Amino acid sequence: MSSQRRAVCLLSGGLDSSTAMAVARQEGFDCCALSIDYGQRHRVELEAAARVALSLGASRHLVVRVDLRAIGGSALTGEDPVPKGREPARIGQGVPATYVPARNTVFLACALAWAETLETGDLFIGVNALDYSGYPDCRPEYVQAFERMANLATKAGVEGRLRVSIHAPLIQLSKAQIVRWAHELGVEFRLTWSCYDPAPGGRACGQCDSCLLRRKGFSEAGIEDPLEYAL
Amino acid sequence: MSSQRRAVCLLSGGLDSSTAMAVARQEGFDCCALSIDYGQRHRVELEAAARVALSLGASRHLVVRVDLRAIGGSALTGEDPVPKGREPARIGQGVPATYVPARNTVFLACALAWAETLETGDLFIGVNALDYSGYPDCRPEYVQAFERMANLATKAGVEGRLRVSIHAPLIQLSKAQIVRWAHELGVEFRLTWSCYDPAPGGRACGQCDSCLLRRKGFSEAGIEDPLEYAL
Q1: Model-level pTM?
Q2: Cβ atoms within 10 A of the Cβ of B15, count?
Q3: How far is A174 from chain B (nearest CA, A)?
Q4: For A152-172, how does the pLDDT look when each residue is reduced to its tens digit (9 = 90+)?
Q5: Per residue in B118-145, pLDDT tens?
Q6: Which CATH class is domain A6-221?
Q7: Is A70 touching B (CB cutoff 8 A)?
Q8: Given an 8 Å threshold on Cβ–Cβ distance, is A152 in contact with B145?
Q9: Contact assessment for residue B120 and residue B7, using Cβ atoms and an 8 Å cutoff
Q10: Every domain of chain A and the residues it spans
């Protein structure tokens, strides 16, 4: 049996979560990738997650279904339009329609459950507070509060066998810094997917907040984004 | 539009969650009942939840699917046997095989998501620290830490529109006290379901931890339990 430490890595298939998993690998973890099928309209990201998990050498890739569509409250799981064409500088102001209520709390809860089953306390998440698109559950104080709660939540924690640690290596970085780090770590950008609202033909829309932040990040990093955009 | 305050009430259909929802009703809340279909082997409890929601006048009842069976690690979602015939006095010692990794964290995360959609911060959960069967995520310090995290997690919280409050009215009560309170509040015991491992013919097994704690509670309260037990 390997003595390599395991980590559960939340992997959406986007640039940030792929980079966070590459960081986990770089730090020597055996990466167990976890993706959540939550009824997102950009379900194509789950295929990207599978490609990235394989490419980065994850030892497992689990997809768990959680029906957030039944709960509603977001343009990402409902019929409301995804906002398009916003100024990147304004994206961080206010919480946008693409916010999914308590999404990272649901995701981290599932990651915690799987981590306990796998007997590890190390969780990686690609949240980012700088270009964070206005999501409250991407801020350092949120991540710290989740970690504290998680250490009181589990059998393994109570029995003193595990200490939960939420790794958020990108939390203070700009998108350009993330692109550069991902490049150094060997993330294959062509395998990733960021768009919230795929255009006909399977291309990224190019105009949703997620596309705009990604394009700005690549542009500022001076690295070419291999994805094709509809607009 | 009614000015009645809404609450999201986690409702498994068991004695504790039914009583917690009856408390919410007593306190004047418009109760929105939330049940989680997580792949539990005692899926029959979801039917009990629907009956109880109706009986207690919930204005809504939502069932959300979360595939914890994919995550594993519990006798309640897998093939391992449910422990039977333990001494009630010993049930609280150690965490049993029926523990589901991070279950209450996953449940409360879903409740938080729905609460934000419904524009309320009041969540009710029937956790109980005394006869708590050894589950770490039923303790007061856990509930407090979840509440603190939840207040940093949501758009509504960050914008100052909601304050999240996790109500756990049963947390310090014995099962006998819960039975008496439920009786006063008009909970219809015959509609509830507690058994982890239903016997053929749809009866409660009578010997799992949940049946044993329930029977002990009714016995000590001097109230008759209308459920039929196989053993």
Answers
A1: 0.94
A2: 29
A3: 21
A4: 998 878 788 889 999 999 999
A5: 999 999 999 998 765 568 888 999 999 9
A6: alpha beta
A7: yes
A8: yes
A9: yes
A10: 6-221
